[in-house]
C-alpha cells in the first residue's frame, strides 16, 4: 500500500512539474496588438471620434451577434491568430471597461481605428495616436506586474507576440487627401518618414522588453472598394499607383526588419505582409469561395463604412461570407480568417 501511495505521489508531482514547464516555457503566452482599424477590437468606442463601429450590422456574426467596435461583421485577424496559438478566440480592447487585467494577461489590444504612424493622421479623425498606444502599453506593463508579480509578468512580456498593423491611413486618409504632407514630402520621402517612425516604435518596444514582433505590411490599398469608387471616372479596376506605393513601402519595411534582426540581440522581428494573399483573393474571389471583391457587403458596397454602414441601410447583404469586403474599407470576417491563417502558417510559424 505504501509503495502504491508513493507511486501515486510520484506521478502527481511529475505531472505537476511537467505542466509547470509547459506553462513557463509556452512559446506565445499572450498576443499584444497595436495599430489601426484592421486590428482595433473596440478602443474607439471609448473616445470622442466619429470613427466608430459599435452598432449593428457590425458584429452581427461575432459571438452573440454583438457589435464590439471591430470594423467587421465578425472577428478580425488578431482574434484568429490568438486562437491559432491556442490562447483565446478573441483579443479584448484595453479601454473596454468590461475587461480587466486578468483578461488582458493573455492578450490585449491598444489599436485605434483611423490612426497611423504619422501623428497628423490620427488628428484627422481625433483618434488615438501611435505614441499614445505605447503609453497605454506602459500602463499595462505596470498593471500586469502588480497582478502577477515582476517575474511572471516579465516572462509573459518577453515571450508574448506583438502584432502591429498600421500605415494604410497615412496614405489614404492623409497624404492623398490633404495637402500638409503631400506639399512637404514626395511620396518616397513620405514613405521614408513613416519607416523612421516605425523604426523608433520597434526600438521602444524592444527597450520595453518585447522580443517577438510582427510588423504588419500594407494591403493592396488601391483595390479597396472605397478607392475604386473614388476613381470610377478613370475606368480603373484597382488604382495601381496606390498598389505600387504599398508594395514599395512593404519592401522598405522588409529592409528595416533585416537591419533590426542583425543589430538587436534576441529580437525576432518578422514582416507580416498581407499584400499578396489579399491581392490573390481580390483578383480571383471565386477561387476562394467568394462572389465579388469589387463591392462590399454593407450598403451599396461602394463607399459605406462606420455610420454610413448602419442597420438603417436597406442594401446590406444577407451573407457576408460571399463578399471579400464587409464595408468599403474593411475585409469580411471570412477574409480576415483566410489572411490570418496564411500569416500564421508562414511568417508567424517560427513562433510555434
- Binned strand content: 5-15%
Mean pLDDT value: 92
CATH topology: Rossmann fold
Shape: globular
The DSSP helix count reads 13
| Helical percentage | 40-55%
Question: Tally of extended strands?
Answer: 5
Instruction: Please compute the radius of gyration using only Cα atoms.
Output: 21 Å
Secondary structure category: alpha/beta
Order of helices and strands: HEHHEHHHEHHHEHHEHH
User: What low-confidence regions span 5 or more consecutive residues with pLDDT below 50?
Assistant: 1-26
Mind telling me which CATH architecture this is? 3-Layer(aba) Sandwich
- For the biggest β-sheet, the strand order reads 2-1-3-4-5
End-to-end distance, in Å?
43 Å
- How many domains would you count in the coordinates? 1
Characterization of this structure:
There is one protein chain. The protein has 352 residues and is α/β, with parallel strands linked by helices. It has a single domain, classed as Rossmann fold. It is built from 13 helices and five strands. A five-stranded parallel beta sheet has the order 2-1-3-4-5, with helices on both faces. Helix 2 crosses helix 13 (333-345).
Amino acid at each position: 500500500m505504501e509503495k502504491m501511495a508513493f507511486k501515486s505521489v510520484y506521478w502527481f508531482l511529475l505531472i505537476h512539474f511537467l505542466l509547470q514547464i509547459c506553462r513557463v516555457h509556452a512559446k506565445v503566452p499572450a498576443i499584444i496588438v497595436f495599430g489601426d482599424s484592421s486590428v482595433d477590437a473596440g478602443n474607439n468606442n471609448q473616445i470622442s471620434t466619429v470613427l466608430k463601429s459599435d452598432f449593428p450590422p457590425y458584429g452581427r456574426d461575432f459571438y452573440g451577434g454583438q457589435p464590439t467596435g471591430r470594423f467587421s461583421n465578425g472577428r478580425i485577424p488578431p482574434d484568429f491568430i490568438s486562437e491559432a496559438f491556442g490562447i483565446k478566440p478573441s483579443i479584448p480592447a484595453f479601454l473596454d471597461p468590461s475587461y480587466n487585467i486578468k483578461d488582458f494577461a493573455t492578450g490585449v489590444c491598444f489599436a485605434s481605428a483611423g490612426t497611423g504612424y504619422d501623428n497628423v493622421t490620427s488628428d484627422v479623425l481625433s483618434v488615438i495616436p501611435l505614441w499614445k498606444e505605447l503609453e497605454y502599453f506602459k500602463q499595462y506593463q505596470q498593471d500586469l506586474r502588480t497582478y502577477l508579480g515582476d517575474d511572471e509578468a516579465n516572462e509573459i512580456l518577453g515571450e508574448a507576440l506583438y502584432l502591429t498593423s498600421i500605415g494604410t491611413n497615412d496614405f489614404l486618409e492623409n497624404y492623398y487627401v490633404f495637402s500638409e504632407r503631400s506639399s512637404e514630402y514626395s511620396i518616397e520621402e513620405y514613405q521614408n518618414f513613416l519607416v523612421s517612425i516605425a523604426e523608433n516604435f520597434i526600438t521602444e518596444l524592444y527597450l520595453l522588453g518585447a522580443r517577438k514582433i510582427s510588423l504588419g505590411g500594407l494591403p493592396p490599398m488601391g483595390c479597396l472598394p472605397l478607392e475604386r469608387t473614388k476613381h470610377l471616372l478613370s475606368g480603373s479596376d484597382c488604382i495601381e499607383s496606390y498598389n505600387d506605393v504599398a508594395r514599395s513601402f512593404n519592401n522598405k519595411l522588409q529592409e528595416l526588419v533585416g537591419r533590426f534582426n542583425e543589430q538587436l540581440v534576441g529580437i525576432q522581428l518578422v514582416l507580416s505582409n498581407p499584400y499578396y494573399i489579399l491581392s490573390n483573393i481580390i483578383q480571383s474571389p471565386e477561387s476562394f469561395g467568394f462572389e465579388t471583391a469589387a463591392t462590399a457587403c454593407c450598403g451599396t458596397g461602394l463607399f459605406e463604412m462606420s455610420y454610413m454602414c448602419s442597420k438603417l441601410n436597406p442594401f446590406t447583404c444577407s451573407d457576408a461570407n460571399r463578399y471579400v469586403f464587409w464595408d468599403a474599407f474593411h475585409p469580411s470576417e471570412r477574409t480576415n480568417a483566410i489572411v490570418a491563417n496564411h500569416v500564421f502558417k508562414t511568417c508567424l510559424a517560427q513562433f510555434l
